[in-house]
Amino acid sequence: MTFIIPIGPQHPALEEPTHFRIEVKGEEIVGVDLRLGYVHRGIEKALTERPYAHGFYLSQRVCGICNATHSLAFTRAVESVAGVECPDRARYIRVIDAELERIHSHLLWAGIAAHEIGFTTLFMLLWRDREHALDMRELLFGNRIYATGTYLGGARVDIEQKHIPQLTRALAELEKSTKHYIDVCTSDRTIIARCTGVGVLTKKDARELCAVGPTARASGVDFDIRRDDPYAAYDEILFDVVTERDGDVLAKVVVRLREILESIEIIRQAIDAMPKGPIRAKFPENVPENEAVGRVEAPRGELMYYVRSNGTNKPERVRIRTPSYANWPSVRPMLVGGTIAEIPIVVASIDPCFSCTDRVTIVDAKTGKSRIETKEELRRLRK
Amino acid sequence: MNVNEVARLIKRYADEVKIVGTRQVFAATDKERYIEALAALRDNDLKHLTTITGVDRGDTIEIIYHIHCGESLLNLKLALPKTDLEIETVTDIFPGAILYERDLMEMLGVQVRGHPDPRRLFLPDDWPKGVYPLRKEVKK
Amino acid sequence: MIETLGYIFAYFVFPGILFASAVGLLFMGIDRKITGHMQHRIGPPIWQEFLDVGKLFCKEDVTPAAANSFVFNFVPLLSFGALIAVVLFLPINSAQPVLTSVADLIVIIYLLNIPAVCMMLAGYASGCPFGTTGSSRYVVQLFGYELAFIIAALAVVAKAGWSLSLSSIVTYQAQNGWMAFQVALIPAAIAILIAAQGKLLRVPFDIPEAESEIVHGPLTEYSGPKLAILRIAYDIELFVATAVIVVLFFGGPVPHTIGGVYIPGVVGFLIKCFGIVVLSTLIRNIAARLRIDQALKFFWTFPTLLAAISLFLVMVV
Questions:
Q1: Among B117, C215, C231, C281, fewest CB within 10 Å belongs to which?
Q2: How far apart are the CA of A107 and the nearest CA of chain C, in angstroms?
Q3: Domains in chain B, please, with CATH?
Q4: What pLDDT, on a 0 to 100 scale, did the predictor assign at position A374?
Q5: What is the ipTM of this complex?
Q6: Does C262 touch chain A (CB under 8 A)?
Q7: Contact A193/C at CB under 8 A
Q8: Domain locations in chain A?
Q9: Which of the residue ranges A40-54, A184-198, B124-138, C15-29 would you say has the lowest mean pLDDT?
Q10: Do C39 and A343 touch (CB under 8 A)?
Q11: Cβ–Cβ of C129/A381 closer than 8 Å?
């Protein structure tokens, strides 16, 4: 006999609301169903009702963690629609911005993963070191989370020379602690017991289900937009695309932690190579009719914005495809056959961002009703 | 695959092949050929469907398949008149398209034949039938 | 009459409800403080556990309709009562406990399992999938740690000349030194410390109430005063489990006279208990949670084997 364990919409293992219905036989998972839509805000539609300059700020609000990459992707698409060239110095500022974000996002994720397997101490320590990245964002761009260095046609703020020594120091700290955490995660026996061979996504599945980002790279898929479709200054910077072969949770942990080391190197190169000059080009108010796709490598994977303009100051259509959205189909093969104990860590292993996934629809007072239905479902289960 | 190779490959299945910049190809196909085109891409080891976009262009709905081709990105367009909004599923070619097609069905009202799981994705269960939020006629 | 009053005092004040609760809550508070420091946080003040329990007592008691049954409501008190009974059987101040029976140790092992059984009943009675899953995990875990626990205790019993009375085990240690320092019994001491970690549901064995997987396991549906009683019961269990280990392996209560001042046995006893609590806190902060199958495999191999080696050494050598 199977019975259904509801996970969410509110659940301690989930940072944001979503609803899984996990069909289990004893402890074994035999089926997974996913219900999205609890944080719908209708952003795609809202973007078409605002001028580009306002849409830029709205695009940051798609996601609370990767707002810099969202604004970067939006800017990239809009700039190619409008045919605006970004000045050289601004391209480097964008790289530093995006990589600082990657560092803090990956450390945040690693902390959550540690929490999901019950390793609270590691969780707290990872988040302590994440503070270095957040402090640097505050120093350079003015805010810890909702800050971006990007702006339409260039950079929003310049990086001042006097801040560089502090940045270098923070990077050294981060490098030291990240190396230590890689060591811990690959040697601690309880972590290995919980993470190896769990939630395996084979390379074949990863390619067929179009997984992106660290989720795909942990399964050996060599795919990184920073290299395949370079933007900002990534074509002038040397870096490796980190891949692992195993595709299990441990591989996903290691891929992300090693990417932090790559990011630190990228920032160092960007600081050294950053030319002097203006940081912003003029962006026209009305954009001629055109269309373009802007892709960037967000911390969670390939992020895509499609923008179609119509000659006015508002876009005709904006399509956002976030990395979490692309990774959802991969969760099923990772969960089925596992046990209940594996649900949190496996779901967390794709680093899901529900706000990102749920950005499309229009919020309606009626959404409240679907919530109540879910509660009734829960009650039925109890009887 | 770089843009020229992609353009050469897709030429047989599409018109108006247009190379934009060094990394992007736009092409327009039609209802007869798009399945063949996608299958041909898949057979050339281009297995990553970035997403499917639907755009309401007034009388037509334009569906864009964005396919990641290594060094470049192919945007394959398919225009459908609003009177005949039915397409075949591509989930047998790209299994990762499963959520994008559900999204397309509920947001723009495109009927996808043969989809394995044609339920709603984001919209609440009691969302009125026949109202598609990303259509132009839907106003606040 | 005096004797009855003595029992009432023992039950309610020392070493019963008042004393055991105070010690248990304090130990838990210290545990949380140490955890905070290990995690690079300031941590709550050490009396935080008193405040938490006090707050829970003041809260409304919400019981879901599906869970509202005699079992669900009665279980907290049963669990609490069983633990207080264990305290009365333990030699806490002197070698002589308040209550004795023919075979103290067996009674204690049985009584110590009552809270575990209560938790299982609570989980199954709560009518919630998290509780049910938690309970079934608890059953498995109980069979895991209990084997090691009993064999380790048996090794001590064998060493003390097959005496099941705790006071004679304490007396034996007063004459021959702590059991933990007898070469043959070192493996058993390690085994019982690991088993206690499982008994107290602490990381890496907090599987039945793994918060990120099944919310709070059997306790998910409890709230208000019932939850408060369960919390106190858990804190007393922390004290009692360490106390049993101290009695069996670390000499139990020994009164001292330092500089002409008489220090009753209970002081040394509590210090030893505290040492074990700190050790357990350290372990719980440097590990991740295991899966239930991994935990069972671990319990039945490593600690059980260690305990069995001790028993063998004691009986044969």
A1: B117
A2: 16
A3: 3-113 (3.30.460.80)
A4: 41
A5: 0.89
A6: no
A7: yes
A8: 42-316+338-350
A9: B124-138
A10: no
A11: yes
Among the partner residues A37, A208, A302, nearest to B50 by beta-carbon distance = A302
DSSP string across C92-143: -SSSS-SS--TTHHHHHHHHHHHHHHHHHHHHHHTT-HHHHHHHHHHHHHHH
Strands (DSSP E) contained in B57-114 are 60-69, 72-81, 86-88, 111-113
Which CATH code of 3.30.1330.120, 3.30.465.10, 1.10.645.10, 3.90.580.10 fits the domain covering A42-316+338-350? 1.10.645.10
Q: Note the helical H segments in chain A.
A: 43-47, 52-60, 67-82, 88-116, 120-141, 164-187, 189-195, 203-208, 213-217, 225-228, 249-273, 323-335, 343-349, 354-357, 367-382
Cβ–Cβ below 8 Å for A344 and C212: yes
A229 touches chain B (CB under 8 A): yes
Which alpha helices (H) appear in chain C, and where do they start and end? 2-12, 17-38, 48-58, 70-89, 104-125, 129-159, 166-176, 186-199, 211-214, 224-249, 265-285, 292-316
Q: What are phi and psi of A218, to 5 degrees?
A: -65, -20
Identify residue A281 by its one-letter amino acid code: A
Predicted confidence (pLDDT) per residue in C130-143, tens digit = 788 888 888 888 88
Which of B20, B48, B134 is opposite residue A210, by nearest beta carbon?
B48
Closest partner residue to C292 among A115, A116, A341, by Cβ? A341
- Tell me which chain C residue has its CA closest to the CA of residue A191: C288
Put simply, the chain C residues between 71 and 110 with a CB less than 8 A from any chain A CB are: none
Cα separation, C44 vs C30, whole angstroms: 9
- Name every chain A residue with its beta carbon within 8 A of the beta carbon of C69: none
Q: What percent of chain C has pLDDT over 90?
A: 14
